[in-house]
């Protein structure tokens, strides 16, 4: 059906067909939410305000499904000033649509052109489907004028075979909230995609200690647990029972409640034994039933299955209960779970009885644990009076307040922004400050293109008038450190003064006649972080005399950014060994510079420093690399072009002789005929 019908039509049809296992439709599905009409497509999205990067969430659930971690984090990240685009797996049969569901949060459905037949969660895209999705994603990004560097948060491995082709201006964070291998319907290829994403995503966040312990030996991982929407649950005026509970609450009983999925991990046997042995328990279970076994609980006189309930009714339902429960089997998928419901139960000041979930250990005596029916029932009886205990209730509420989603979103954003410090050395000489200021603007004036950036602006003996311009620019941005040499020290000595002043873990030498494409800084840092054999890395460019040059066309720097994105798409993480990195734009580890030496200063004003310095790195066993996912526009040797041709040739001949004395015969640089294959059809 999914090959011929839109996803929404499939879902509507499913609700009219018998449910496997004989589960009643009213219990198997969430209530159908009324979908607001699209507000004019992508053009309805307000322009970005401020410099904070946009965030694209590739979601694990539709927005209108049960409100969980994905929706809460999206809402809180938007509250921090980011535009958040929550992209659902379901697509539209015609144009893409967007609707604002909370301030700054836009739910997006991309078009399904070229994508039909790709099944959510389990589908593996064909190359042409991946190409179509990339085109749709780029169309969205262009239509909303996305930030030069943006974040992509992936919540399910389904997305990886699509998003892995994106260029590095889209920084990818895997938000791992489940041990998906524990789901009975997880197919092997989904687990393979997850492992590949774990290895290659820029960042990885996990929601529990279990997941942290599982994945931290593989890669760097940060734990951001679940939380609670405190404001939704602490309104004590929500005391009246929801209308659908009318007549269903039995007087003179201990009311026991549950809200959440009733799935394969639900401990049916345990709860059935508790209900049968304790007829004075009035047990109310709210949530879609997706497994057969829990259905038999509805046959018991003191158990009511309500199906899925609206999120707005959850606090009022909680308040009608004496005790709230988490009756889960201790399967791996549950051990990996940090239960949101415990935070929500605590916010309404109701005691929780649970099986021994590892993530609840840190709650200490605020939660009551039991793993057999007799003990579980005893804990319910013990906990029930505490529903009216003001002191215990305040302790529960404080626990919820300490674990608010706003804190979790702040932790998530901090990890997404976390990068090693990068020092960029920009050497200036001469009266023309326009190029230098444009070079600075590419890094500092277009938003947050690298979040931990230091620019060391080195002046090689400019006039007082020029120095005044450079000083004013440095004074206006605390990321700029101005080094005034007082004389023209030449290329190598001038850059070395900048290296000496730099404080970053990584150092980039950048000519003042360049304009970096978005994502280039992040791409080059990643190559040095992940490839210890690489000692120096540089970008592709429009204008240089070696393998880094590539044919590319654009009319201005905005068009350059789009052309550079197309150039990097399908090449994320790729690099190619080349003999020499041209030092118009070359990045190093600071530790390697300190160990192997800074630029050789024997070449005077310039030429051959890069050949010589790269030879030193080769001698130490390190590779010089071309980043296939980074681009830098280069006007080409603005300083040297000002020299008379005879003087330039004389300098070249002198410095070539010096190089050959040290390293043997110089091999002229050359262009290349082709690039490595892209991961995406149609990519360059």
TrEMBL record:
Annotated coiled-coil positions are: none
Residue ranges constituting the Glycosyltransferase 2-like domain according to the UniProt record? 423-596
Entry keyword annotation includes Transferase: yes
InterPro entries (alphabetical): Glyco_trans_2-like, Nucleotide-diphossugar_trans
Q: Which UniProt keywords apply?
A: Glycosyltransferase, Transferase
Looking up Pfam families in the UniProt record yields: Glyco_trans_1_4 (PF13692), Glycos_transf_2 (PF00535)
Molecular function GO terms recorded: glycosyltransferase activity
Family as reported in the entry's similarity comment: Belongs to the glycosyltransferase 2 family.
| Protein name per UniProt | Glycosyltransferase 2-like domain-containing protein
Record organism: Paracoccus salipaludis
């Amino acid at each position: 059906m999914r090959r011929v019908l839109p996803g929404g039509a499939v879902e509507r049809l499913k609700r009219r067909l018998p449910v496997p296992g004989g589960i009643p439709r009213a219990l198997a599905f969430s209530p159908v939410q009324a979908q607001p009409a699209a507000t004019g497509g992508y053009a309805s999205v307000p322009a970005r305000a401020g410099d904070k990067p946009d965030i694209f969430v590739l979601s694990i659930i539709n927005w209108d499904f049960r409100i969980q971690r994905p929706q809460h984090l999206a809402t809180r990240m938007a509250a921090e000033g980011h535009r958040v685009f929550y992209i659902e797996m379901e697509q539209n049969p015609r144009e893409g649509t967007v609707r604002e569901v909370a301030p700054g949060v836009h739910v997006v459905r991309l078009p399904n052109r070229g994508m039909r037949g790709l099944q959510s969660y389990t589908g593996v895209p064909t190359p042409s489907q991946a190409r179509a999705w990339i085109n749709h994603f780029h169309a969205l990004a262009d239509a909303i004028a996305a930030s030069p560097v943006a974040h992509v948060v992936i919540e399910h491995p389904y997305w990886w075979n699509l998003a892995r082709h994106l260029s590095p201006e889209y920084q990818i964070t895997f938000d791992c909230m489940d041990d998906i291998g524990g789901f009975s319907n997880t197919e092997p290829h989904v687990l393979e995609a997850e492992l590949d994403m774990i290895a290659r995503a820029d960042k990885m966040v996990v929601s529990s200690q279990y997941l942290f312990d599982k994945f931290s030996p593989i890669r760097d991982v940060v734990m951001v647990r679940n939380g609670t929407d405190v404001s939704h649950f602490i309104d004590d005026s929500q005391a009246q029972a929801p209308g659908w509970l009318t007549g269903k609450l039995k007087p003179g009983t201990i009311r026991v409640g549950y809200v959440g999925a009733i799935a394969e991990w639900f401990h049916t046997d345990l709860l059935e034994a508790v209900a049968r042995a304790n007829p004075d328990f009035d047990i109310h279970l709210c949530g879609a039933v997706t497994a057969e076994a829990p259905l038999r609980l509805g046959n018991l006189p003191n158990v009511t299955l309500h199906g899925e309930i609206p999120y707005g009714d959850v606090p009022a339902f909680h308040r009608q209960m004496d005790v709230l429960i988490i009756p889960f089997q201790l399967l791996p998928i549950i051990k990996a779970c940090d239960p949101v419901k415990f935070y929500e139960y605590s916010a309404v000041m109701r005691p929780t009885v649970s099986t021994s979930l590892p993530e609840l250990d840190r709650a200490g005596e605020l939660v009551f644990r039991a793993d057999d029916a007799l003990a579980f029932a005893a804990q319910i009886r013990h906990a029930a009076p505490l529903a009216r205990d003001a002191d215990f209730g305040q302790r529960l509420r404080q626990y919820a307040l300490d674990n608010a989603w706003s804190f979790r979103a702040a932790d998530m954003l901090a990890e997404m922004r976390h990068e090693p410090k990068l020092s960029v050395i920009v050497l200036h000489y001469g009266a023309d400050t326009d190029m230098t200021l444009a070079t600075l603007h590419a890094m500092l004036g277009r938003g947050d293109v690298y979040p931990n950036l230091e620019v060391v602006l080195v002046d090689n003996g400019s006039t007082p008038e020029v120095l005044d311009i450079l000083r004013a620019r440095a004074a206006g941005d605390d990321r700029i450190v101005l080094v005034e040499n007082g004389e023209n020290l030449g290329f190598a000595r001038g850059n070395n003064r900048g290296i000496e002043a730099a404080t970053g873990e990584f150092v980039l030498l950048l000519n003042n006649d360049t304009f970096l494409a978005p994502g280039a800084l992040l791409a080059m840092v990643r190559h040095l972080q992940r490839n210890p054999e690489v000692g120096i890395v540089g970008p592709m460019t429009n204008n240089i005399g070696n393998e880094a040059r590539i044919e590319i066309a654009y009319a201005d720097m905005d068009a350059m950014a789009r052309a550079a994105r197309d150039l990097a798409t399908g090449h994320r993480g790729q690099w190619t060994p080349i003999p020499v990195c041209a030092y118009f734009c070359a990045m190093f580890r600071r530790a390697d510079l300190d160990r192997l030496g800074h630029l050789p200063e024997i070449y005077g004003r310039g030429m051959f420093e890069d050949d010589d310095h790269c030879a030193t790195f080769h001698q130490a066993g390190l590779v010089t690399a071309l980043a296939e996912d980074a681009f830098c526009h280069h006007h080409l040797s603005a300083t040297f072009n000002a020299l008379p041709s005879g003087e330039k040739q004389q300098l070249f001949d002198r410095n070539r002789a010096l190089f050959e004395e040290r390293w043997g015969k110089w091999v002229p640089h050359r262009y290349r005929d082709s690039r490595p294959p892209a991961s995406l059809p149609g990519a360059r």
